[in-house]
Amino acid sequence: MPRRRNGEIPLPDGWDYARDFDGKLYFIDHNSRKTTWIDPRDRYTKPQSFADCIGNELPLGWEEAYDPQIGPYYINHVNQVTQLEDPRLEWLSIQEAMLRDYLHTAQDALEAHNYRKQKQNS
Questions:
Q1: pLDDT per residue over 24-64, tens digit each?
Q2: What element of type H or E holds 87?
Q3: Are 74 and 88 a contacting pair, CB within 8 Å?
Q4: Of 63, 71, 91, 106, which is most buried, counting CB atoms within 10 Å of its CB?
Q5: From CA 103, how far away is CA 37, in angstroms rounded?
Q6: Percentage of the chain with pLDDT > 90?
């Protein structure tokens, strides 16, 4: 996709942007006659899932916002829900569970291998 002189990726054909009453940017797809909070250029620049994220990134469709009354909260624009829990923590717990399962499986396989080897040697 061509870049503008200032390095910004241009919006796809048929797209425009505007601001709501609070000044928040939203995007207009004139092709489908729909609006979205998700910048259509994000699909080129943001990770597609939590598995693709590096460091403290949020994937495509997620946004961290701040409210002075409640503090930080998270917006999932894809599913159109908000939550107080950091979704990166949920992904971290999923990764930890996958790692635990992998280590248990590897340990079981190693023990089975050692058992077979021991049987062969006796």
A1: 999 999 999 999 989 999 888 888 888 888 888 899 999 99
A2: helix 87-121
A3: no
A4: 91
A5: 41
A6: 48
Q: Which long-range contacts (CB under 8 A, 24 or more apart) does 41-49 make?
A: 41/9, 41/11, 41/12, 44/1, 44/9, 45/9
Q: What are phi and psi of 11, to 5 degrees?
A: -65, 150
119: its two tokens:
């049987």
- 109 pLDDT above the threshold of 90: no
Cα 92 to Cα 51: distance, rounded to the nearest angstrom:
10
Q: What angle do CA 86, 78, 58 make, to 5 degrees?
A: 40
Structure tokens at 34: 């729909």
The answer to whether 84 touches 75, Cβ cutoff 8 Å, is: no
Higher confidence at residue 32 or residue 119? 32
d(CA 69, CA 77): 22
* Residue found by looking up tokens 């000044």 in the block: 23
Cβ atoms within 10 A of the Cβ of 87, count?
Answer: 15
What's this model's pTM, rounded to 2 decimal places?
Answer: 0.55
CB 90 within 8 A of CB 83: no
Task: Calculate the average pLDDT of the chain.
Answer: 87
